[in-house]
Amino acid sequence: QVQLKESGGGLVQAGGSLRLSCTASGNTFSVSTMGWFRQPPGKDREFVARIRSRDGYANYGDSVNGRFTISRDNAKNTVYLQMNSLKPEDTSLYYCAATRTHFFTDASGVDYWGQGTQVTVSS
């Protein structure tokens, strides 16, 4: 079993930056991929970013590509999401996600979820 805990959400002005973090605990040796989804009210959960533990391969959703950067610290079982050039459309609840054996492609493939952290971007 793996537990995920997010931090770093908050309120920021459009054009500003925030850095989210997610730390895994429990059977962390089994985690192959960690990343982020977001879910605005009334909308489906949307892929944001993911990173593979063994080699650091990462990719991003189209709406954040070029503005957000995911990174990892395997020794700390932690991933980070650096969010730059934030837009009001980025306002959402952000969820940390992890998988045991694969590089997840959508929310249905995620094995573990964090509780979510709120990001609000003002105009």
Describe this protein's structure.
By secondary structure, the protein is mainly β. Helices cover 0% and strands 52% of the residues. It has no helices and eleven strands. It has strands spanning 2-7, 10-13, 18-26, 33-39, 46-52, 58-60, 68-73, 78-83, 92-99, 112-113, 117-122. Strands 2, 4, 5, 6, 9, 10 and 11 form a seven-stranded mixed beta sheet that branches.
The gist of it:
With 123 residues, this protein is mostly beta strands.
List keywords for this structure.
mainly beta, seven-stranded mixed β-sheet, 0% helix, four-stranded antiparallel β-sheet
Uncertain segments are none
| Average pLDDT taken over every residue | 95
Q: Using DSSP, what is the number of strands?
A: 11
Q: How big is the Rg?
A: 13 Å
Share of helical residues: under 10%
Query: Which structural class should the secondary elements be placed in?
Result: mainly beta
Percent strand equals: over 45%
Topology as a string of helices (H) and strands (E)? EEEEEEEEEEE
What is the global morphology? globular
